[in-house]
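Researcher: Re-running this chain for the archive, since the previous output was lost when a drive failed. Same request as before.
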Amino acid sequence: MTVKPEWLRVKAPQWERVGAVKETLRDLGLNTVCEEASCPNIGECFAKGTATFLIMGPACTRACPYCDIDFEKKPKPLDPTEPDRLAAAVARMGLAHVVITAVNRDDLPDGGGSQFERCIAAVRQAMPQTTIEVLIPDLCGNWEALAAILNAAPDVLNHNTETVPRLYRRVRPQAQYDRTLELLRRSRSLRPSVYTKSGVMVGLGEGFEEVVTVMQDLRAVDCDILTLGQYLQPSPKHLPVQEFVPPERFAQWAQMGKEMGFLQVVASPLTRSSYHAEEVRNLMVQYPRTP
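Model: Regenerated structure tokens:
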């Protein structure tokens, strides 16, 4: 299945704006998941002046066969200047909403939770009005590290489910479906004021009803926001695409998600975890949470 359908074509970006974002990132020595994971929306997002910052990277301690981020068993030590450089980029770009994600750092006792804390604090100090979304790894089930991240008070905590339970061994061999749900459940319990979010990629061989079951499981732990998007094979060495899911099926899932009670469902072939993430600011006005 090498020919992409029409609905997966993206518009050419405004290269002048893209260049300005890339210059800021290079100048401050920062990584983005947009570049490292070969996101198809990089042109659109960079053209709008947005980016999903990748901290503690760019190498990951896990080698998930769907992901284009480089694998390294022993990555470099954490950079203490990274939080301030990140905050400087957010200020320079004038971001109203920022997404901060990270590679898996299974080599660290807290999975990198303390670096998330420092980054949240630095952005809060530099840009108090900016809303902050963190897209975190599973921290190997270190719930103290999760609590510390939540105590830093991000506005949104995102942790991706990625796929259906049946495919975890093949798609996410070092992750656990139940641990993902537990992380989201604990997040809601530990800090009810923080919106929770998760994402699923399709086209890896899952069935329609299997996706529905995942959606139901996410609502059972009171997950607020759901993203659904098409998996795209980054290179021949990665997992192959089993199906290009048509837009109408995404529309079905989106409608079902709203009926289940998700506050927001973003579902389309080109949707990624951080795609149109800034729209959560509208959600926060419509469905405010008490601190």
